[in-house]
Amino acid sequence: MIGGPFGEIGQTQFLATSFLKYAVDGDGNGRRDLIRSVPDVFASTANYLRAFGWKRGASWDPGTANFNVIKKWNKSGVYQKTIARMANAIR
To answer: Domain-by-domain residue ranges, the chain?
Structure first.
């Protein structure tokens, strides 16, 4: 397993401890690949968010339970608000 210069792994930048706890095999090939497998990335990210209290179908706007989960993912207020805005634009 090779990560970035600060230890981050894959598209959603799991640290090694998060990879070990939350990465899952989303494409069913027997491996957890957060670099080359989009199904693994999405399934692992969902698994991580769910573990921290993400409520499926609920809002992720500031002040909501899901926004608090985003805050656990990354401590940067700018990052948190950007994720919420991007998610709203995609929705």
So the answer is: 7-51, 56-91
